[in-house]
Amino acid sequence: MTIGKIELYDTTLRDGAQSEGVSFSVSDKLKICEKIDELGIHFIEGGWPGANPKDMAFFRKAKRLKLKNSQIVAFGSTRRAHVKAANDVVLKGLLGAETGIVTIFGKSWDLHVRDVFKVELEENLRMIEDSIAFLRSKGKKVFYDAEHFFDGYSGNKSYALKTLKAAESAGAHRIILCDTNGGTITSQVFEVIEEVRGAVSTPLGIHAHNDSDMAVANSVAAIQAGCVQAQGTMNGYGERCGNANLVSIIAALKLKLGLDCVSDLALKELSEVARYVAEICNMKLQDNQPFVGNSAFAHKAGVHINAILKNPRTYEHVDPHMVGNHRRLLVSELSGKSTILKKAEDLDLDLGKDDAKSRKILKVLQDLEHKGYHFEAAEASLELLMKRVMRQFKSFFDFESFKVTSEKKKGGKMTTEAMLHLKVGKENDRTVSFGDGPVNALDSALRKALKKFYPSLSEMYLTDYKVRVLDEKQGTAARVRVLIQSQDSDDSWWTTGVSENVIDASWQALVDSIEYKLLKDLKKGK
């Protein structure tokens, strides 16, 4: 069949807000709204007006947004049982939001009608029809969410279709088939939608949840079966296992089916928008998220990298730049000569055509990774390692010694003191600093000692610290690996250290973080 224009409907601000750990302020919702608009999403569901003060405040402020592509949609339910639509508080709240489009949900599954609503099946049909007709009489376009439709269709096909026909007869502009429990498999979605299209003429949409890890596949299959609207959330946020990931849906529709749901220019912003929303949600964007994740186009095996360098299509299903992402070649113990040469080229290290140099770096790398280092997660330490091996790096300071002591007195707080001795050029420096713990005290002492020589260190700070025990069977004598993330005004970087002593491992990572910052500044002429 020929697929026509596809509508994208984002429900991050409502369904996505139900994700565990996510809580939006009004300001957050407005920022996300503007960002999603830049992507070219057609409809943005703002929330449930009347349900809470935050959503009401959002709809008031959203009127002042100058959106270029998106329309704000208010969300609610059908009228209550045995109440006139004109008197229903939820429908009044929807009108109060003053949006041109409203989405309401109703029950399609007779099990829910009987066990949750506890009303007659015919009354549920009247609730759907009356609510839509009332909103239409007030000049609203209505999208009808047929909640639990696929479960209802499986249990009582005749009644599930009656609910859709009630919505259609009342004038719904779109009927959205919802896999609310997320338990329907893709082939069933396709088959059911083909059957429903023969029973109703109103354009259909799909709203899938991800409890069976099929929400994106189900959404794409629904479009192939004839739906005109795909609903989802940015990065798949949502209750339980989440909603269909709208980011992946967009990429799949555009790049796999050739459907012009967003512009080519907007598609290149996909990774940036996904990361922006993740940041506001205070959720780490999953590294392995398709299309936009940090690892989506990361290659580690030497054979893969060798092929990628010859022809990227060998191990990449799309060009990463099309979705605003980039290729990463990971250097590890699995790397080959091609990986080392390419990484050296990226770092402006001239290895020439001397295979001995790349073999030397690879040997050092493999030996260190055998001891527990993890350079693919700490590329700043990797760059320093390669330059040290090739004798193309001169340290910015010389370490002499450090001593860390911790003390806790009865009824008091633990205190930690670090004493550090280092040399910068011919000048000796001894510094004492206190911290919340040994790593914090060492970090404070190191930067305190070096700031007078390298003032740019004042703009650098640590943002993350991770410790992993490498061999748990060794107990307290086990090696540990430390990863440290540092940040300045330009970017962030990771460094690593390994030792049987967590303070020593942390010191290695701290020193690398400082050395990398100073090397970076030197390159920029700071």
Based on secondary structure, the structural category is alpha/beta
- What fraction of the residues are assigned to beta strands by DSSP? 15-25%
CATH top level of the domain at 7-262 is: Alpha Beta
Calculate Rg over CA atoms: 29 Å
Instruction: Compute the separation of the termini in Å.
Output: 60 Å
Structure description:
The chain has 526 residues and is an alpha/beta fold. Among the domains are: 7-262, TIM Barrel (Alpha-Beta Barrel), CATH 3.20.20; 397-453, Double Stranded RNA Binding Domain (2-Layer Sandwich), CATH 3.30.160. It contains 18 helices and 16 strands. It has helices at residues 26-39, 53-62, 89-96, 110-117, 121-137, 149-155, 157-170, 186-197, 215-225, 246-256, 264-267, 270-281, 302-310, 337-346, 355-371, 379-389, 438-450, 502-523; strands spanning 7-10, 43-47, 71-77, 101-107, 141-147, 174-179, 204-208, 229-232, 298-299, 328-329, 398-407, 415-424, 427-435, 461-469, 480-487, 492-499. α6 crosses α7 (157-170), α9 packs across α10 and α13 (302-310) crosses α14. The mean pLDDT is 89.
What is the element layout, followed by pairings?
Layout: E1 7-10, H1 26-39, E2 43-47, H2 53-62, E3 71-77, H3 89-96, E4 101-107, H4 110-117, H5 121-137, E5 141-147, H6 149-155, H7 157-170, E6 174-179, H8 186-197, E7 204-208, H9 215-225, E8 229-232, H10 246-256, H11 264-267, H12 270-281, E9 298-299, H13 302-310, E10 328-329, H14 337-346, H15 355-371, H16 379-389, E11 398-407, E12 415-424, E13 427-435, H17 438-450, E14 461-469, E15 480-487, E16 492-499, H18 502-523
Parallel strand pairs: 1-2, 1-8, 2-3, 3-4, 4-5, 5-6, 6-7, 7-8, 9-10
Antiparallel strand pairs: 11-12, 12-13, 14-15, 15-16
Helix pairs in contact: 1-2, 1-12, 5-7, 6-7, 8-9, 9-10, 13-14, 16-18, 17-18
